[in-house]
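Changelog-linked ticket: zinc ion example.
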Amino acid sequence: MAQPLRLVSRAGWQAARPRAVTPVLPRALRGVAVHYSAANRDEQANHANCASRVRAIQAFHMAPSRSDPSKPWNDIAYNHLFCVHGYAFEGRGFGVRSAANGTYAANSEYHAVCFLGNDDQGRNDVTDAGRDALAALLLEYGRRYPWATAVVPHSQFRSTACPGDELRRYIASGAWREREVSWPVPLPRWFWVWARWRLGRGEFKRYGPANRARRPKIAPRIIPAWAWDRLRVLLGRR
Ligand SMILES: [Zn+2]
Ligand SMILES: [Zn+2]
């Protein structure tokens, strides 16, 4: 059974603060570009090492020597990263302009997600858990930006091996679209509080639906895709 999106927040991997945050223009979005870190997968044999790997990529991207020293990058270049253990790491996050796609237009029109690993010939580098994490991410992007349906390899924008043949094939197959979305059983307590807030019911009735000032602190900052799906099911039964 496919897993819901398991997201490691910036706090979770101890991200450095971004120098600046530039939002994307949502209506300019066309989709998501997929990358790989091209670091050997074996470095991440243990999930406990993945956070430090993401920190190292951020430090590399933000180093002044990376480009024009007078204009160092704002943050890790990717919007999200994903690992072979089935986790997604929050990079710049949803709705922020990426710096990974190679051209100004591509960074304005495509979010960027990056696989923490390589593409060795004849080896299943991405793994089922990694493909699952990518699928969960792509479905979440699709839910937030339903008009931006393209999912493309980095190599579409410039001459590069990125993200490797394995991911290029997986993207082209469209198999990620068929991924089943499931939710945890039992549902966590925050889900019910968040759902009542979202719908303006119960203790939130007098504030109306999704009153920003009343957003329950118990709810995660980024609501996972399964929770939105469960909410839609609840509404369907109303
Ligand atoms: Zn790339
Ligand atoms: Zn991992």
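Closing comment: Example verified and attached. Residues 127-144 form the longest helix (18 residues). The chain has a mean pLDDT of 89.
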